[in-house]
Write a structure and sequence with these properties.
single chain; about 300 residues; alpha+beta; seven-stranded antiparallel sheet; three-stranded antiparallel sheet; 13 helices; about 40% helix
């Protein structure tokens, strides 16, 4: 497979304020382009959630978490805060963003969560208005609770755990992760080089194996990246998709190209995998307006992937 990013594509990338494009096929670099000339460490925004999901999977693989059906309250000791209604919330409910908390659309309580002195308690004290598992609401507070669960189970922050079990085995160049009170921020806060984010995608394309080493179980990858809830499948423009375990899912009928899954960050940051073609794609975009994220998606499905497939 040869390089595919041409002059006309670069003109579009400049116009649409996209700063990074990286394409890998399995573990091999196919093409890369950087608006500033080279790769650099940058924030993942909510793509952080998908990395955290992988760390939860690794902790289950390692036996440090028992299963997805473990109750949040049993691990965090928060039964008195969440009460009887919240006492049935499980790790799986948090991963699929169906814990039942009152969390208005598009993460509106997020700023209050970050501003709070104790974001864990802030998240736990939100009213429960749905039976756990019933309704999908995008919720960075639940993601932060997952990070707290990981730390409680392993004795390590998500950054420390990630370095030991994921970042160092994949030889990441750098990793920074904001934290509060020893807990890495669950919904955002991780910064990586674009190439390292692409490696993470390639690990998933290779079903959890990197250079002959098993990093994460293939069963976890398969289960965490499949559709568990329709999520925001009907949102227009079609920036999002259905939802897995902190992964977005976009089936063929949603994008008219191929079944895929992706991590998505504020403003149009994408790590998108197309297993059928062994592709992992990183897009980093300058943040403008929310729905301008559609330009990242348009570039992937209307320009980049067609060029990649025509070259096969």
């Amino acid at each position: 497979m040869t390089k595919v990013i041409n002059k006309s594509m670069i003109d579009l990338l400049e116009e649409w304020k996209i700063g990074t494009v990286i394409v890998m096929k399995k573990s091999h670099m196919v093409d890369e382009w950087y608006r500033h000339g080279e790769d650099e460490v940058g924030p993942l925004y909510s793509c952080t959630k998908s990395v955290l999901s992988a760390l939860i999977g690794i902790a289950i693989d390692q036996g440090e978490l028992q299963s997805l059906d473990q109750k949040m309250s049993d691990i965090l000791g928060c039964s008195e805060i969440v009460g009887a209604e919240g006492d049935t919330i499980t790790i799986k409910h948090l991963l699929t963003m169906t814990p039942g908390f009152d969390w208005p659309d598009f993460d509106k309580p997020y700023k209050a969560l970050r501003a709070s002195q104790d974001p864990i308690t802030f998240a736990l004290k939100q009213p429960i208005i749905h039976d756990p598992g019933q309704a999908y609401t995008y919720n960075s507070g639940g993601s932060h609770l997952l990070s707290a669960i990981l730390t409680k189970a392993t004795g390590m922050s998500a950054l420390q755990y990630g370095k030991k079990h994921l970042f160092e085995p994949l030889q990441f160049r750098a990793a920074k992760w904001s934290e509060r009170n020893g807990i890495s921020e669950g919904g955002t806060g991780l910064s990586l080089c674009g190439q390292d984010l692409a490696k993470f995608g390639a690990l998933f394309i290779q079903e959890g194996v990197w250079e002959g080493q098993r990093i994460i179980s293939g069963d976890w990858i398969k289960d965490s990246t499949r559709l568990h809830h329709r999520g925001l499948m009907n949102y227009e423009p079609p920036i999002y998709g259905g939802y897995g375990y902190h992964w977005w899912c976009s089936p063929f009928e949603h994008n008219e190209m191929a079944d895929c899954y992706f991590a998505f960050g504020h403003g149009g940051q994408y790590l998108l995998m197309i297993p059928e073609f062994d592709l992992s794609i990183v897009i980093r975009k300058q943040i403008t307006k929310r729905n301008d994220a559609i330009y990242s998606r348009k570039f992937i499905f209307e320009h980049l992937v067609p060029a990649l497939l025509s070259d096969q």
